[in-house]
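// run 5 | inverse folding | seed 20
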């Protein structure tokens, strides 16, 4: 009866993706499996007949994985290198915790319970929710279904336990971060018009020198409004529009005068403003200052909408494709500024085949070299090679005419497609072996090993953050990045409103994947 799924593998693949995505939307308390639902539906269908798994098109899983890790690396690279120096101690502690966890999995699993390395490597990838780690475990194992069994047991366990840890951290109210007072990033951006009541130099206004506060437009006396390109001195009777976080704007109002009853830019007959989609590839990877809006058009960028986040457009902010830039400009130059930035919706989903092809080729190339230590063979492989290369290219952003980064929407789309294809292939090819191994005394032993190791691992990461003086919000983000699951980040953000959750996640996410891949190969080999 089930031979139909083996005879028509492409139909099977996409029905698993569809059904698995629906299953991933089901909420189990605070937990949703998300894309991992595809893995479990694939395991279920693959368990029905031994011919289904071998029918899956060869090499498709590698393509899906490459797309996933490459797009992850492009996004995570800049944050990783930015946080490398200030968060080096935390990164070192996280690496140590991951190594200790790998030793615990190996000792408990192999020495105490006699479980083979591939199962343990997959379980280690599961409690770290790292899909590239699963691929590394399968590449290092002679029986790829064994790591998939461990991964399928460890993954849901990891999500549930990590959310319990995050809930526990959120409940600790007297948690102070002696070395982590804040990020300096505002929770939101606001715009206010100020009636100037005293003579003030703009450089003396708090936040202006550090880029926390911008002046977007001004009117001298009762004159005509104009763009505040290079504000210098304000005098009584002037009006100025301030943009920044609530605290910075409040300090600016206090320094300059009082808040005006009417907003200066409500009249848009002389000075206009609008959000413009950045789709001009020549501007991607350049700073706000480098695109010279003021010099070319007498205009000024004040905000950048990137994904779900509003950023203040200070001079050093790096722009990327798919940013929505709010620009204040002379009304008659609106069309010129719009054309300069691009504002072409069709280009939002365009991908440079040249830069992406070269980037992936370079990633596969650096994944080829192997290091043999005894019976253990270490390599970046198809899991970590594209990831490492993408992190470097994401940091570079562009090389001459080549723009390495992808538009945000295109990046997320390719990432989702790659992940779903990979998980569907793994589930289908491993389902029959999973049915044999997971629901047995062997499966119970493996579950015991993973529960103990997961609790140890997460507790070590929290202890590292606590000892290094990290704040409660950043610790929640660090734990989410350490485990590497966006569902955990979403849960942490629902418990506390602080940008340090997301920056903590970005600090460890890519690093943890790389360390887990190395540890997984060691577990299989040893």
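// decoded
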């Amino acid at each position: 009866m089930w031979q139909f799924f083996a005879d028509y593998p492409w139909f099977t693949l996409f029905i698993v993706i569809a059904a698995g995505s629906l299953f991933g939307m089901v909420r189990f308390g605070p937990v949703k499996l998300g894309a991992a639902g595809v893995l479990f539906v694939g395991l279920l269908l693959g368990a029905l007949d031994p011919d289904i798994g071998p029918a899956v098109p060869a090499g498709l899983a590698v393509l899906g994985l490459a797309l996933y890790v490459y797009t992850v690396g492009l996004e995570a690279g800049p944050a990783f290198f930015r946080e490398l120096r200030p968060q080096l101690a935390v990164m070192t502690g996280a690496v140590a915790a991951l190594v200790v966890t790998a030793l615990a999995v190996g000792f408990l699993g192999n020495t105490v319970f006699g479980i083979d390395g591939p199962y343990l490597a997959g379980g280690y990838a599961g409690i770290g929710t790292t899909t590239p780690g699963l691929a590394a475990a399968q590449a290092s194992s002679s029986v790829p279904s064994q790591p998939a069994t461990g991964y399928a047991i460890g993954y849901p366990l990891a999500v549930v336990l990590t959310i319990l840890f995050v809930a526990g951290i959120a409940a600790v109210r007297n948690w102070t971060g002696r070395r982590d007072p804040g990020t300096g990033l505002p929770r939101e951006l606001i715009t206010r018009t100020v009636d100037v009541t005293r003579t003030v130099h703009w450089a003396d206004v708090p936040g202006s020198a550090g880029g926390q506060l911008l002046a977007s437009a001004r009117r001298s006396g009762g004159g005509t409004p104009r763009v505040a390109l290079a504000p210098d001195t304000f005098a009584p009777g002037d009006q100025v529009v301030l943009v920044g976080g609530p605290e910075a704007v409040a300090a600016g109002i206090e320094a300059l005068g009082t808040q005006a009853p009417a907003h200066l830019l409500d009249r848009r007959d002389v000075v206009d403003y609008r959000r413009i989609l950045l789709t001009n590839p020549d501007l991607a990877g350049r700073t706000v200052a480098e695109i010279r809006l003021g010099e070319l058009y007498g205009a000024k960028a004040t905000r950048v909408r990137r994904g779900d986040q509003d950023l203040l457009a200070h001079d050093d902010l790096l722009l990327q494709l798919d940013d929505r830039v709010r620009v204040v400009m002379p009304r008659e130059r609106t069309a010129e500024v719009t054309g300069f930035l691009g504002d072409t919706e069709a280009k939002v989903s365009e991908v440079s085949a040249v830069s992406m092809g070269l980037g992936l080729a370079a990633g596969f190339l650096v994944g080829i070299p192997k290091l043999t230590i005894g019976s253990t063979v270490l390599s970046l492989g198809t899991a970590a090679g594209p990831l490492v290369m993408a992190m470097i290219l994401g940091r570079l952003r562009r090389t001459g005419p080549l723009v390495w980064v992808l538009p945000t929407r295109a990046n997320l789309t390719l990432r989702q497609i790659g992940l779903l294809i990979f998980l569907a292939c793994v589930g289908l090819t491993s389902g029959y072996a999973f049915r044999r191994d997971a629901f047995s005394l062997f499966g119970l032993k493996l579950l015991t090993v993973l529960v103990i190791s997961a609790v140890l691992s997460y507790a070590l990461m929290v202890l590292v953050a606590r000892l290094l003086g990290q704040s409660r919000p950043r610790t929640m983000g660090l734990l989410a990045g350490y485990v590497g699951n966006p569902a955990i980040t979403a849960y942490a953000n629902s418990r506390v409103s602080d940008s340090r959750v997301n920056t903590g996640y970005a600090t460890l996410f890519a690093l943890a994947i790389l360390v887990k891949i190395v540890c997984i190969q060691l577990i299989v080999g040893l």
